[in-house]
Design brief:
The chain has about 250 residues and is mainly beta. The chain folds into two domains: about 15-125 and about 140-145, Sandwich (Jelly Rolls); about 155-250, Jelly Rolls. About 0% of the residues lie in helices and about 45% in strands. It has one helix and 23 strands. The protein has one helix spanning about 170; strands at about 5-10, 15, 25, 35-45, 45-50, 55, 60-65, 70-75, 80-85, 90, 95-100, 105-115, 120, 145, 155, 160-165, 175-185, 200-205, 210-215, 215-225, 225-230, 235-240, 245-250. The protein has a seven-stranded antiparallel beta sheet. The longest helix is centred in the C-terminal third of the chain and has 4 residues, at about 170. The radius of gyration is 18 Å and the shape is globular. The protein starts with 5 loop residues before the first strand and ends with a strand. The mean pLDDT is about 95.
């Protein structure tokens, strides 16, 4: 299947029940031919999460904390910690982990490759593990914890925007990248973004709104909760972005 343009809107989406009582909204319904899945995950009730130690047989997987907070623990990464809004984690292949508790109304974005992947339970392993190995190799990748409070924004590739790097490129040795991109306060919007050659260029709007143009066609306004995939070779632009416009951009190489 050739890479396709996808636009999903929060207003049109439906939620389905998943693991540990979580609700899932599909952000890439066509899966790009089975290569990718992106989910908007919500936990309505706060408190302990009925999760178990598990891992995923994946090529790439990351989570981004959008709203609320979640307490998690990962194999060889020290004691449990909390992801706050704007934080992210790269979950390298087969790293064992567990969701422990969360706030009411937690929302995270999860992006994985391939779309269909195996989840493996490990009921014998106790987390946290006794020793900490932050640089451990998991299938050619290493665990990454990005803390928004410690991150700085830098100029983005398109005039009028700035971005903070979530560290995914370094953790995956260039397989994928992830940035939070927001409207810059001191520059006018520039021209179309240059066409890309990645297998996936996925965006989800975190705040605000903007007009999406794809190859010169007006796709209308994209607002918080909307998501889109721009296929390789296709120019696009975001015009009339609101002052609070912000999006998560994830790119995965071929």
């Amino acid at each position: 299947m050739q890479p396709s343009f996808v636009l999903t809107r929060l207003a049109d989406g439906s939620w389905s029940s998943g693991r540990a009582g979580m609700l899932y909204r599909d952000l890439i319904p066509d899966r790009q031919g089975g290569r990718f899945i992106a989910s908007h995950i919500r936990v309505p009730d706060g408190g302990p999460v009925p999760d178990y130690v598990h891992s995923h047989r994946v090529r790439f997987q990351m989570i981004y904390c959008h709203k609320g907070w979640v307490r998690v623990v990962y194999e060889d990464q020290g004691p449990p910690f909390v992801l706050h809004p704007g934080d992210a984690a790269l979950q390298p292949p087969r790293i064992r982990h567990r969701v422990l508790e969360c706030s009411a109304g937690l929302e995270v974005i999860e992006v994985s490759c391939p779309a269909e992947h195996e989840t493996l339970a490990d009921f014998d392993l106790k987390l946290p593990t006794p020793d900490r190995h932050p640089g451990r190799d998991f299938g050619g990748q290493r665990f990454v914890r990005h803390e928004a409070a410690r991150a700085a924004f830098e100029p983005w590739s398109v005039q009028g925007f700035e971005a903070r790097d979530l560290g995914i490129g370094a953790g995956t040795a260039g397989l994928a990248t992830a940035h939070v991109v927001r409207r810059s306060t001191d520059a006018a919007l520039g021209k179309d973004a240059a066409p890309h050659d990645a297998a996936l260029l996925f965006s989800v709007v975190l705040a605000g709104s903007a007009s999406l143009l794809r190859a010169g066609e007006d796709e209308g306004l994209v607002s918080a909760g909307d998501a889109f995939v721009i296929p390789a070779g296709c120019p696009y632009a975001l015009h009339a972005a609101s002052a609070d416009f912000e999006r998560l951009v994830v790119s995965v190489a071929t």
